[in-house]
Amino acid sequence: MYRFEEKEHLTDRECDVVYLVAQGLSAKEAALHLKIAPCTVERHVENVRLKTRTRNRVHMIAHVMREGLMTHYQPQDRLAA
Q1: Which helix (H) or strand (E) holds 38?
Q2: Has this prediction a pTM greater than 0.90?
Q3: How many structural domains compose the chain?
Q4: Cβ neighbours for 17, distance < 8 A, ≥ 6 positions apart
Q5: Is residue 62 part of a domain?
Q6: CATH number of the domain that 66 lies in?
Q7: Running DSSP on this structure, what letter comes out for residue 62?
Q8: Cα 29 to chain centroid, rounded
């Protein structure tokens, strides 16, 4: 049986989106912060969900936090004001 041993890799933009969604922002609000379209935010959320094999946003955020997938993420350096 094949086991996926490596941790999932999240891109910088995916980390931005997960961080903002975890803060309670909607896709539209996150899109305004990131200066991208809301549908792009939704696509990033879906990509992270697929990478992490999670059922929904809450499960995705809990998984990302539990697995430490964003331990070195620095939001103040990446997000637009």
Answers
A1: helix 38-52
A2: no
A3: 1
A4: 30, 34, 41, 44, 45, 48
A5: yes
A6: 1.10.10.10
A7: H
A8: 14
